[in-house]
Amino acid sequence: MEIQFYGGARDVTGTMHVLTVRGKKILLDCGLYQGRREEARNRNRNFPFDPAGIDAMVLSHAHIDHSGNIPQLAKLGFTGNIFCTHATRDLCGIMLQDSGHIQEMDAEFLNKKRARTGQPPVTPIYTARDAMRAMNQFVSSGYLRPVPVADGVTATFYDAGHILGSAITALDIEENGKTLRLVFSGDLGRPNMPILSDPAVLDHADIVFTESTYGGRLHDDYVTVNDKLAKIVNDTFARGGKIIVPAFSVGRTQEIVYALHQLTLEGQIPELPIFVDSPLSVNATQIFRMHPECYDEETRELLLQTRDVFGFGKLRYIENVEESKKLVRLKKPCIIISASGMCEAGRILHHLRNNIEDERNTILVVGFMAENTLGRRLVEGIPEIRIFGEEYRLAAQVVKLNAFSAHADHDELLSWISNFDAERLRNIYILHGEFAQSEALANGLSSVGYSQVAIPERGEFVEVQV
Ligand SMILES: [Zn+2]
Ligand SMILES: [Zn+2]
């Protein structure tokens, strides 16, 4: 049996690993690689293996860096089943289509540039239609229900508490009367986060593959986040200002809505108009409503009490553009949650443009802002911000809430791994992290006594004896 790492190794995007058991090939995740445009297009367009030669696929969760290249995989000849949880399948139903639209717009933009220099046009890597077609290959299951994925290989999903439907995958492999258990953390969430259950504790594995996005960092504790959020809302309300929240449509938006719902019920914030202004958020929230099996106890309790976790008071979901435009004319204090999360595109840009120059307003940053994004420039407090080609003076307050991370930090990763029976655990492979983060986790693991720890590179093979 062997495993080869093709992406998400010493890197956080484009996760893709191939497990070969008795000649059968199982693909673990099929993420879109995100990076410099030209390199990304090449990597996403061409697979380092023959897609038609893959027998089955196991998908950890719906984030695009894990699922985003499935339409292309199917387009190039993969006809097998894609095993994942129910919520992951449903989220992929909207997220892959959205990604297809983005690929189409990206090609259109590139082609305008290419036409000017007389270069031939490019085609999108895949289209929204390709994404729709690939959905037919999904086979979904609940958590803790072992599913046969290939001859002698059974997959069991455990809740990873990272986004709705996210899974830690255990693969039990039978060979010569012996069973070997490989555990893939997928992206691992954090304890005490809103809505989702805490990451499941697993106690035995022969080999563990762990993510390490924040392998070298410590996050703020989530427990105090509601108090901080309440203070931000109340301070802005007292100034007569608006709160603009750039947030990813899937996950962060629902967490903020949930936190605001709790604060409203507890009377800690006034009943303000709240708008969720992003078509993808509206659809994603519908899917959150359909999957109470992914909720933690507290959220189930709230559901029983209020019947709708994601709807309350003056909260409105905005779908059409006309309604979105009306928000601009609104003068009273309110909260607007909109995408994209890093302020690179989407309706958030209109809200920023209209509110950034008023010092009564607050721009609330609740997610990671990558380098070279508009979101990062806001966090850095750059005095003049360019939006749609025009300069705007940054007068609104920019406030960061760090506790909303969906990834376990250094201590949380160590504590999750230390639950495995140390006598049985042979090897740990560290994936899904920039090298410094993976190395910090490796050092942490060796300081608590783990000796067989490796950080594989892209393209590296590992052979495993059952
Ligand atoms: Zn993820
Ligand atoms: Zn990821």
Say what the CATH topology of the largest domain is. Metallo-beta-lactamase, Chain A
Spatial ordering of strands, largest sheet = 6-5-4-3-2-1-22
> Rough shape?
globular
What is the number of domains? 2
Number of helices: 14
Extract low-pLDDT stretches: none
Relative helix content: 25-40%
Cα separation of the termini: 8 Å
Please write the CATH class name of the largest domain.
Alpha Beta
The CATH H-level superfamily of the largest domain is Ribonuclease Z/Hydroxyacylglutathione hydrolase-like
Structural class: alpha/beta
CATH architecture of the largest domain: 4-Layer Sandwich
Q: Kindly provide the radius of gyration, computed on alpha-carbon positions and rounded to a whole number of angstroms.
A: 23 Å
